[in-house]
Amino acid sequence: MQYKSDIEIAQACQMKPITEIASLAHVDEKYIEQYGKYKAKIDLSLLKETNKKDGKLILVTAITPTPAGEGKTTTTIGLADGLKRIGKDVTVALREPSLGPVFGVKGGAAGGGYAQVVPMEDINLHFTGDFHAIGAANNLLAAMLDNHIQQGNALNIDPRRITWKRCVDMNDRQLRFILDGMGGTANGVPREDGFDITVASEIMAVLCLSDSIDDLKQRLSNIIVGYTYADEPVTCGQLKAQGAMTALLKDALKPNLVQTLEGTPAFVHGGPFANIAHGCNSVMATKMALRMGDYTVTEAGFGADLGAEKFLDIKCRMAGLTPDAVVVVATVRALKMHGGLAKTELGTEDLKAHEQGIPNLLRHVSNIKNVYKLPCVVAVNRFPTDTDNEIEFIIDKCRELGVNTVLSTVWADGGKGGEALAREVVRLCEEEKGDFTFSYGDDLTIAQKIEAVVTKVYGGDGVNITPNALKQIKKLESLGFGGCPVCIAKTQYSFSDDPTKLGAPTGFTVTVKNVKVSAGAGFVVVLTGDILTMPGLPKVPAAEKIDVDENGVITGLF
Fold this sequence. Notes:
By secondary structure, this protein is an alpha/beta fold. 36% of the residues lie in helices and 20% in strands. α13 crosses α14 (351-371).
């Protein structure tokens, strides 16, 4: 059978004008700012002026990722289309893709097969320019910081203790560590510097957690850019940069509206990675989607130990959100990889590998039910090579935890393949009431919060905090940041901080190497392992296959 590529499927879709999609989402035309025929921004005043009651919130998360893939975004979109097909008033809220992975190795974030958001090419490339605005605001702050030092350094900033980096939305390892300000006194003060990818910028986190222009401006003002010679923090507000930065970001703060292949309204906005940031789409987009639909389906990045943990412990805490149900996505193929099989060995039945790999799924499910106390369903993306024995094995194991398993074929069948999952999600929302609980309380110390996540969510024995990190924690607590939630940056490939520990490892500790505050975002960033905030391109970048013809039709984009 000849399968169409994602881009071929997307380009064959007869999209509806965005005004029709807005009408379906109960958005009056006066709130729409069109970016062509098929995408628009929605004015923030909509939330203040609508009387519609918030709908149910469904979070889609997944097992620990493997090269075999899990299909979390695809499931999110297919579930939304499935809910629409069974007669529900539904919206979907997703993150925007970063150009770095699009041209690198990971691919886009618009779903796949017959469960995609469109226009797929626009969403995966420049979209409405949000990421460019975030990069410009980030780099304006960097420019004003260095200019302040050049022009006399009235704040007494120590150039050796600047924590603010420049950013660019591209995988470019060459920029991780640089020397700048070279070329004599007229060209700045020489110092060590570096670039992050835009999705790792604190501006991205700030934008995604802000709920108004005023909140955005205040959060920007709070950003710490470095320290003085007297060891005092220096903020964006002291550099008087927040007003101009907000001016650059005022349109980027407005959520973007597009559609699925089946015409379901989709709010696509913001895109922090979950391994180095908090991994969720914007608060504004989620709240807008909730207000405009009876059911809102959203996702969190990577596995549930990263994206879901941060969605629940950071985003829900700050925004006052409570999910009504959680979907944990898995595949037979990925579970066999967690059981030790190579990617080339996944096409045949192997219940032994399955038994060794399924504890990964069960730990994620247990965390949702027993740590966060939320209703949960497992969605298995079925592949043609999956056997009935393997599927039954998953169903039996999840049933022991009191969780149902539903097969999903949304990649091949679109919303029709998500109807069974949609019905189970509706049942969870209507019949099973959760008792949502965070994995740690606000009153704990920074170290206690880290340990709570490691022991309760990761399944580890505890944490090993290096002397340098302990010193950083003490400093942050003395500055009044002890009450902040923690955003733990670690590998996405394992519950532990070691990417080679697959499945559901035990008997491990997590080493904390550095701790810093994102004062604008309002959380403390905890760095474990060797976490890169500027990825590099692979040996054969995806960019080599992308092209455009004389009519502007793009090819090679997945």
